[in-house]
C-alpha cells in the first residue's frame, strides 16, 4: 500500500511562493497519475492540479492556472506543486492523492 507524505507548507505573504512535495512509497507510485487537492476551513476539499504518470499531461483548476505548476520526479517518487503569486484565498490544507489514498496534508497560510 502506498503511503503519501506532504511537506513544504508554511506561512507566506501574498504574492509569495511555496513549493509543496508529495513523497510516495511503493514501486507503483510512478505508474499512476497524482493529484493535489486543498481544503480551506469550512469548505469542501477541492481539486487543484493533477499530473499523468510520466508528466506528459497536467491539469489545473481555473483558480490556480498560470500560478501553480505541478511536476514529478519518478526517480524520487515525488510530486511537486510550485505555487507562485499566492493569494489569501489559497490558504488551505493541501493534500496529494494517489488512487484514492490521501496523505496527512500540509498547511499553507497566505497572509494579506
Task: Outline the secondary-structure elements.
Layout: E1 4-7, E2 10-13, E3 18-24, E4 34-39, E5 46-51, E6 58-60, E7 68-73, E8 78-83, E9 92-98, E10 101-102, E11 106-111
Comma- or semicolon-separated keywords:
single chain; 51% strand; 7-stranded mixed β-sheet; mainly beta; 4-stranded antiparallel β-sheet; 112 residues
Brief rundown of the structure:
The protein is an all-beta fold and 112 residues long. The protein has strands spanning 4-7, 10-13, 18-24, 34-39, 46-51, 58-60, 68-73, 78-83, 92-98, 101-102, 106-111.
Q: Radius of gyration in whole Å, from Cα?
A: 13 Å
- List SSEs in N-to-C order: EEEEEEEEEEE
**Strand count:** 11
Helicity range of the residues?
Answer: under 10%
Largest sheet data: 7 strands, mixed
**Terminal CA distance:** 40 Å
- Strand % is over 45%
Alpha plus pi helix count: 0
Structural class: mainly beta
Question: Globular, elongated, flat, extended or rod-shaped: what is the shape?
Answer: globular
Low-confidence residue ranges: none
Mean pLDDT: 96
Amino acid at each position: 500500500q502506498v503511503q503519501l507524505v506532504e511537506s513544504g507548507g508554511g506561512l507566506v505573504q501574498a504574492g509569495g511562493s511555496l513549493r509543496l512535495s508529495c513523497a510516495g512509497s511503493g514501486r507503483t507510485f510512478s505508474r499512476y497519475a497524482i493529484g493535489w487537492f486543498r481544503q480551506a476551513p469550512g469548505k469542501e476539499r477541492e481539486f487543484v492540479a493533477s499530473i499523468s504518470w510520466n508528466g506528459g499531461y497536467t491539469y489545473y483548476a481555473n483558480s490556480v492556472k498560470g500560478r501553480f505548476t505541478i511536476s514529478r520526479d519518478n526517480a524520487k517518487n515525488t510530486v511537486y506543486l510550485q505555487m507562485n503569486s499566492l493569494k489569501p484565498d489559497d490558504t488551505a490544507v493541501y493534500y496529494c492523492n494517489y488512487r484514492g489514498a490521501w496523505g496527512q496534508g500540509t498547511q499553507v497560510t497566505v497572509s494579506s
